[in-house]
Amino acid sequence: LGKMAPSQLKQLKSSLRDHGISGPSQSKKARKSDQSRSKKGHKEAVLSTLRESFNPFELKSAVRPRKFDVTSSKTIGQNGKAVVLGRPGVTKSRGEELRRNTLLPDLHRRGKVGGIQDRRIGEMDRTLTPEERLQQRLAKEATRRRGKTMFDLDEDEDTIGLTHLGKDLDDFEEDISDASEDEARGENDYSDDDREDGASRKRRWEGDGAASDVEDGAEPERKKSKAEVMKEVIAKSKFHKFERQQAKEEDHEIREKLDKETQGILALLGKGKPGAPKAGLPPAPANGISKDAGGETAAEKRRDYDEDRGKLLFDQRAKPTERTKTVEELEQARVDRLKAMDEERARRMRGEADDSAEKLKSDEDGDAEFFGFQSSKIPEEDRMPGEEQTDELGFEDEDDFLIEDDLVASDMEGSVAEYSSDEESEDESTTFAGDDIVNPNRTALGSGRKAEQHIDFGPEHAGSYPCPQSHEEFLTILEPTTMDELPSVIQKIRAAYGAQLRPENVEKLSAFSTVLVDHIAYLGTLQPPAPLPVVETVIRHIHSLARSSPLAVSKTFRTHLRRIQTTSDLAPGDLFLLTAISTIYPTSDHFHQVATPAISLIGRWLGLHTAKTPSESLTGAYLVALALRYLRLSARYMPELLRFSTSALRHRPAPTLAAAHVANLLTMAELWSGTPGAFPAMFPSSILPLLDPTSAHRLRVLLANARRGRRPLELHHHRPLAIRSVQPKFEENYNPDKHYDPDAGRTESKKLAKEYKRERKGAMRELRKDANFVAREQLKEKKAKDAAYEVKYRKLVAEINEEGGRGRNEYDRERRKAGRGR
Amino acid sequence: MAKSTMKRKRETDPNTRDGSSDSKAAKRLQEQDRIDQLAQGIIESRENYNDLIELLAAAERSEQGKGGLQRHAVASLFGVFSHLIESGNFKKSKGTPQKEVVIVEWLRERLVEFTEALLQQLPGNENSYLPVLIGLARVETQHASPEALWQDGIFARTVRKLSLSGEDFANARTVFVGDYIKGYRDSPFHLFKVARKLLKQRRGDTEADLLRSNLLHTLIDTEPVPQILESENFLFAQDGKRARLAGSEQELKREGQELWLDLFKTGLSKPQQKLVLSKTAELVAPCFSKPELLLDFLTDSYNTGGSVSLLALSGVYYLIQERNLEYPSFFQKLYSLLDDDLLHSKHRSRFFRLLETFLSSTHLPSALLASFMKKLSRLALHGPPGGVVIVIPLVYNLLRKNPSTTFMIHRETRDPEAREEIENEGMDDPFDDAETDPLDTRAIDSCLWELDALTTHYHPNVATVAKIIAQEFRKEAYSLEDFLDYSYASIIESELSKEMKNVPVVEYEIPKRIFTGEGVGELNNLGQLMNSILAQ
């Protein structure tokens, strides 16, 4: 400790001597024994290591000395020596060199324009032999040519198959350019590379080699050679071409056959004019040519053909029709449709139909749009038949038409029923009924009636009714008619303004449907009251109309519901409305924009009224029956019904009314017997004395069933909730450098941010170094300039001095001469 | 001076107007002048005191429909009397000569006459005559003793008149309370005093009823004691030395307390009881420096049953909470309040707020909680939607807090024999509905089938709420407050106020029959019912 280390010079000398580079010259024998190892290389290597070890600034290593293997594993190599983290001198000089090659020419060229770039290969390079130069030129030429005609199959590549180390020379070229790119990445990379120790670098090289080996091993099968692949492709394409030609020939044959038969087909079509093929076929010019045999000129024929084709295109019969289905198929289709609809309904009942509702909505939106589009934009004569949309419309119409028929039939039944029950106008009714039965068709429907003068029943005259757009208009139309004619009036208006007749009829009918909704509310206010079959028919008409304009009808219903909401009592008209809602809308839906408010209103009435007066009791009985109709499919539970019916029975109503209430109660009991747990609580035994014996017996049976069906509730078969753990997750083989963030996006963004930061720092460092370099160079230049100037200056001064000296000498000489001469 | 100007007016008037209306207006002006003259005369000299009678007559004369003139007379009289009182003409002391005493007595009589006249004409003139009365009372207060004020002062007379009259004075009462009692520090005290005096007098039944009901409504409208004490407006006691008129805090509270107790003693009817109970916590109880005195009233009401009990509950709770009142078998009583009408009651939200507080106690036996839950579920089974949506979150919260009660919604029978028996024979509900002691109902052995049934409730929102019982109990607790204010109106309103977002689905099948039956001319049950409705 007390002794200082020897001086650098001494150390150097001793180490040189130790390595046998300097020192006393060896004996010849010894020198000979050393001959085996390559003397010069060995000496160089030794010298470089010595140089490194004596220049502590050439190598960069960790600042801290060795501490613990665990904590400082990276800074200590396997042999216990500090790991070299970088060679600042080397990197610096390389960077300098690179700059001198790239930046300096730029700097010099700054402010200068033009110039010639020498792209010749190896022209100025003396290191290349003439053969090498030629080879390089050839390679370059080959790449250029290949780039131009990459898909030139005729060229046989083998002719220029120059290879190097078993690799195609072209590939080799690419490698070279890659390498130069790598170099151009700059100093940053160098330092990165340098940070890795020699071992890892070597491993990478080996790895690369292995990888390429593997690729080579896997490839031979796939990479047959481009020529072979191309040959296969050509063969394939030739095969396909042949197939196409064959198909074309077949088509041609068929077409010729068809052309021959055209006359016959046209005759069948009733045209009697030759030369038009079936409209469905594409117009082929070949047709025109093939008919040259007929004797007309080609142009005429073409024109005839086009005319005929145009005609046939607009011919309704040209539309492809659906295959006539058998009765079984039709039945099956109907059943399928009903089943699908019922499934849809069941889904809505369970409240699952949110997405499908969306779908439906969009469908219907599309429909509405379609209708709007049709009514506003396309004039009727411009419409093209045979298009998809009309097809769709046709289907709709067909659907509607079916209902129409249905309705017509029921109209007659209704009127028959009504007339036979209504004895007010006996003579008329009998004749009418007779007529109806004998001649049940629309034109004959009104024959022999007094109202004939006002109502033309023929569809062609039905337009004499305007389509009412408001309830007042409708009332004025109805003024001359009797109540019993109402269904037929509606039928006439609907027939006259069918959606398929004029596009604007869609809107008209939609307005008419809202008028009808208003009308059923109005029917309730009439005195004497409207006959129920008539109301029923009106409701069914609304239902039919609601299918084409659901929004308008629903809005009107909701307006009425809002009106009912503000009143505390229900008029017969309101009851009609609620009844209509019960049939028109699917009341089993979990939520429905019209049906749910309606049943809530029923619930409110029943909940807030007790059956004190007979009229209340009666209205209540009706509402309970109606509510049960709402619930019959969904079998939902409605406490108000139970409460009202039992309280009504407790008030001891008239026998008929009591029977209605009892019937309601029993319906409820049947409906809700599916919930055995709560059933006895719903129907406590205190109800039993209120019922007649048979009903009481029925209820007792249901109660007994419920008792038998009752099981303890087991609602919570859920997976037990896990207790929240606050223990940290233990990671096996935890590496602090790795990220264990479970959020992939976050990891990604962090990575990106880090990379960005690194790149930014690198770029800034490079720029700074560039700037330093430029400054240095400029300084160097300036110094050189200054030095040159100085030299010049000195030279001039020296010259002048010399000249001056010479003059003075001369003068002195002359003076001396003169002096001497004197 | 005044006379001369008036004369000039009289002279000029006929020039500007003509006809009968002109003469009428002139006559009115003449009369007004006359009234002004008389008033001036009375103020000027004692000799004109007799003119008071004429003035009073003018003030009482209302039959001619000359409202303006009458009011003019009243205003003049107000001026005259204020002046007379202020100038000490109403005072008499021991040394006052007999003659003076007679005059003072006479003047007092006139003042009373005037007051009574004003009070009589109060309906319809509340906003013009009440200020006059109160103004006179204020003047009077400055020159008379408080005792006199409460005994038969103008204020006392006003209160008495208002309290003893019927419906026609209802408006006057509200104006009186609104303008002269509310927002003042002293007037409520006087009101209490006068009211107590009124209650002490003996009366006939109808009159007593009237008095009780009027006083009750007046008192309900007054502010609670703490608010009175905060107020800094004085109606009567304006200057500092009269501050004692306002009464100290203790005095005010004592008066209030005594007044309420006196009122309770008169025997309130049921609606009145409800009215008082609904205000107990905020209005009545703060008056009581000894709330124990309220106990009798509250327990009586609590034991009445029905909605009165519901309302008394908050008062009882107040006493339990604030005064450490021990109420024997409180929960049993509470349990008995769960009757069929509870969910239909107007006061249900009030009750459920309290019920949640009571049942949130951590020291209650599970059996008791189970009884409450089961009973509430039973009630919900027959309740309106608004009631159902209160019960379900409440039960949820209870189940969540008391895991031992969750057997009511999930009970797996482990014993194979028992299970087989249930499979074959079903089971009875062990819950005893008639049992009044919530500890003995065996509800803990039962299941909440009722809530399960409510998941199929017709109203979608209620059904959705009911489903929380069967779902995993992830939520700590539902805030009951959010569920308290649903009613038919609000439910329907929320459905109808929303715009239709998508097109409603229409039933695909058009039914063949709605009202008609199978046969020709037949009607189904709906049709028959409808026919009989239409026939009415």
From TrEMBL, chain A:
The reply to whether Nucleus figures as a keyword in the UniProt entry is: yes
Fetch the InterPro entries from UniProt. Nop14
Q: Where in the cell is it found?
A: Nucleus, Nucleolus
Query: Which keywords does UniProt give here?
Result: Nucleus, Ribosome biogenesis, rRNA processing
Bias kind Low complexity: ranges: 269-279
- In this chain, the stretch annotated as Disordered covers 1-47, 72-97, 164-228, 269-390, 417-451, 732-751, 802-822
Q: Which GO terms describe its biological process?
A: maturation of SSU-rRNA
Q: Which residues lie in Acidic residues bias regions?
A: 170-181, 420-429
Q: Where is the composition biased (Basic and acidic residues)?
A: 219-228, 298-363, 802-815
Q: Does the keyword Ribonucleoprotein apply?
A: no
* Entry GO terms, CC: Noc4p-Nop14p complex; small-subunit processome
The Swiss-Prot or TrEMBL record describes its family as follows: Belongs to the NOP14 family.
* Function according to Swiss-Prot or TrEMBL: Involved in nucleolar processing of pre-18S ribosomal RNA. Has a role in the nuclear export of 40S pre-ribosomal subunit to the cytoplasm.
**Matching PANTHER family:** NOP14, NUCLEOLAR PROTEIN 14
Q: What is the name of the protein in this document?
A: Nop14-like protein
Naturally occurring in which organism (per UniProt): Eremomyces bilateralis CBS 781.70
What taxonomic ancestry is recorded?
Eukaryota, Fungi, Dikarya, Ascomycota, Pezizomycotina
UniProtKB/TrEMBL annotation, chain B:
Q: Which residues form a coiled coil?
A: none
Xref: Pfam families: CBF
InterPro entries this protein is in? CCAAT-binding_factor, Noc4
Q: Which GO terms describe its biological process?
A: ribosome biogenesis
Sequence segments annotated as region (Disordered): 1-31, 413-432
> CCAAT-binding factor domain: which residues?
309-466
Annotated membrane-spanning segments are none
The terms describing its cellular component in GO are:
Noc4p-Nop14p complex; small-subunit processome
Spell out the Acidic residues composition-biased ranges.
422-432
Residue ranges with Basic and acidic residues bias: 10-31
The family assignment reads:
Belongs to the CBF/MAK21 family.
Identification of the protein by name: CBF-domain-containing protein
